[in-house]
Amino acid sequence: MVVLCGRPYHIDPLINQKIPQLLTGFGVDFITEDAVPDNGTSRFDGLQVLTQWAYPNRLYHAASWVAGQPNHVQLVQLNSFGCGPDAVALEENRQILEAGGKNLTLVKVDDISSTGSVRLRIRSMVESLIRQDREKRQERRQEKRKTTPHFEKRDRKRQIIAPFLQTIIPDTCRRCFRPRDMRSRSFLRRTGCPSKPV
Description:
With 198 residues, the protein is an alpha/beta fold. It is 31% helix and 13% strand.
């Protein structure tokens, strides 16, 4: 079974390159990400992104659900443009699935000039799942994701080192960090040496 993720406009066969028909042609059952079971307790505690948009939240929920399912349940994500929130959501979904021992199958529908490459990618995914030895197939345990530690009061004694971007940036950083008792230092453009700490 495949969970097929995409934006609402990906339902149009001219945009989605008939990927749903490809899946069913290979004998694969699929549901869309908005049909993923939800018992009302969806939590995004382990995410490393800001969950403020409904569309990426649906993707994260679908990826988390797929990551916790047996290996024959996979996720295929349709993508157009790959910028803005989509770029962040793609990387987060990849990490969620990797923590569950699975790969993200991504199809960039706006990059397709011939459907042969999409057919090959979908067929490869389906064949790899079919060829797995059914007796040896085991449910994979979901690993705990590595996250960036939170900044705490004791971390204020640390020094923040920033690259030199423009002449105004170091002064702006110092003004932002000084009221919070934080020290900052930026690298000078020409010498590559750190400036004096503040």
